[in-house]
C-alpha cells in the first residue's frame, strides 16, 4: 500500500514538473489554433463581401465542391491515385538514395566518383525533368513515379551521406578494436549513429514527394489531385482548386504523422 501511494505521488510530481507546452494534449490543441483562425477569417472575409466569390469562395462552397465530387465517385479516385504515386515514388527514391548514401558516405572512392555528379543533378529544378521523362517514358505512370522518386531521392541521400561522413571516428575505432569490420561494423556502430538522420531524411523526402507529385500531375496526367488543380484552373472552379490544396495539405500531414510514429518506434529500438 505504501509503495503504491509513493508511486502515485511520484507520477503526480512528474506531471506537475512537465512544462505546459510539452504536454501532448496541449501540443495537439495548439496545432488547431492557426487552422481554425484561418478558417474563421476566411469565413468572415467571404461572408462580409470583402473578397468576391470568384476570387475566394466560402469554406462551405469548397465543402460542397467536395461533396459533388464524392457523389460522382471521383474524389476518392483522385486521392487514391495521388497517394499511390507518392508512396511508390517515395519508396523507390528512398531505397536508391540509401544505397548511394552508403556508397558515398562510407567510401572515399564512391564519394569521389558520385558526389560531384549528384550535387550537380540536385540543382536541376523539378519541372526541368518533365519534358525529358515524357520523351523517354511517355505520358504514363512510369514518368510520374520517376519524377516523384527523383524528388524523394535527394533529401535522403544528402542527409544520410553527410551523417555517415561525420560518424564519430572514436566510435568506429572502438568497434574495430573489438574486431568489427565491414557489415558488422556498419550494423553495430555506424547505422545506429545515423538512424536519426535517416528518419529526418525520410520525412523531408516524403514532403518533397508531394511537391513533385503536383509537378508531375500538372503537366502529364488525366487523374489525381495535381490534375484536378490544373483542370479546375482551366474551368475557373476556384472552389475545386482550394479543395485540392486543402486535401494535399491534409494528406501531407497524415503521411508525416505516420512517419513520426515510425520514427518514435525506430528510435526506441535503436537508441
What's the helix and strand layout?
Elements: H1 2-17, H2 24-31, H3 33-47, H4 59-71, H5 75-106, H6 108-122, H7 126-137, H8 141-165, H9 169-177, H10 182-219, H11 225-235, H12 238-270
Helix pairs in contact: 4-12, 5-6, 5-8, 5-10, 7-8, 8-10, 9-10, 10-11, 10-12, 11-12
Plain-language structure description:
This protein has 271 residues and is mostly helical. It has 2 domains: 2-46, no CATH class; 74-270, MetI-like (MetI-like fold), CATH 1.10.3720.10. Helix content is 84%, strand content 0%. The chain has helices at residues 2-17, 24-31, 33-47, 59-71, 75-106, 108-122, 126-137, 141-165, 169-177, 182-219, 225-235, 238-270. Helix 5 runs parallel beside helix 8 and helix 8 packs antiparallel against helix 10. It is globular and about 75 Å long.
Beta content:
under 5%
- Give, in order, the helices and strands: HHHHHHHHHHHH
What's the architecture of the largest domain, going by CATH?
A: Orthogonal Bundle
Instruction: From the alpha carbons, calculate the radius of gyration and give it in angstroms.
Output: 24 Å
The CATH superfamily of the largest domain appears as MetI-like
Number of helices: 12
CATH class of the largest domain: Mainly Alpha
Which fold name is given in CATH as the topology of the largest domain? Answer: MetI-like fold
Distance between the termini: 35 Å
Query: Judging from the principal axes of the Cα atoms, what is the shape?
Result: globular
Count the domains. Answer: 2
> What composes the largest sheet?
none
What is the count of β-strands? 0
Low-confidence stretches: none
Mean pLDDT: 83
Amino acid at each position: 500500500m505504501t509503495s503504491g501511494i509513493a508511486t502515485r505521488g511520484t507520477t503526480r510530481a512528474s506531471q506537475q514538473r512537465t512544462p505546459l507546452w510539452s504536454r501532448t494534449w496541449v501540443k495537439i490543441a495548439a496545432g488547431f489554433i492557426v487552422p481554425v483562425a484561418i478558417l474563421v477569417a476566411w469565413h468572415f472575409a467571404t461572408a462580409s463581401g470583402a473578397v468576391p466569390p470568384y476570387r475566394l469562395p466560402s469554406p462551405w462552397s469548397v465543402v460542397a465542391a467536395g461533396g459533388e465530387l464524392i457523389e460522382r465517385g471521383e474524389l476518392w479516385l483522385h486521392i487514391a491515385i495521388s497517394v499511390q504515386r507518392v508512396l511508390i515514388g517515395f519508396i523507390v527514391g528512398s531505397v536508391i538514395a540509401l544505397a548511394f548514401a552508403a556508397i558515398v558516405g562510407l567510401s572515399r572512392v564512391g564519394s569521389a566518383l558520385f558526389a560531384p555528379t549528384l550535387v550537380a543533378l540536385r540543382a536541376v529544378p523539378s519541372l526541368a525533368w518533365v519534358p525529358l521523362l515524357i520523351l523517354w517514358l511517355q505520358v504514363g505512370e512510369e514518368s510520374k513515379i520517376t519524377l516523384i522518386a527523383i524528388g524523394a531521392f535527394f533529401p535522403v541521400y544528402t542527409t544520410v551521406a553527410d551523417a555517415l561522413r561525420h560518424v564519430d571516428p572514436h566510435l568506429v575505432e572502438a568497434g574495430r578494436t573489438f574486431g568489427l569490420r565491414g557489415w558488422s561494423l556498419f550494423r553495430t556502430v555506424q547505422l545506429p549513429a545515423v538512424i536519426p538522420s535517416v528518419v529526418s531524411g525520410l520525412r523531408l523526402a516524403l514532403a518533397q514527394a508531394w511537391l513533385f507529385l503536383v509537378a508531375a500531375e500538372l503537366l502529364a496526367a488525366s487523374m489525381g489531385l495535381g490534375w484536378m488543380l490544373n483542370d479546375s484552373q482551366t474551368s475557373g472552379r476556384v472552389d475545386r482548386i482550394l479543395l485540392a490544396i486543402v486535401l494535399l495539405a491534409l494528406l501531407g500531414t497524415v503521411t508525416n504523422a505516420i512517419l513520426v510514429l515510425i520514427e518514435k518506434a525506430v528510435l526506441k529500438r535503436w537508441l
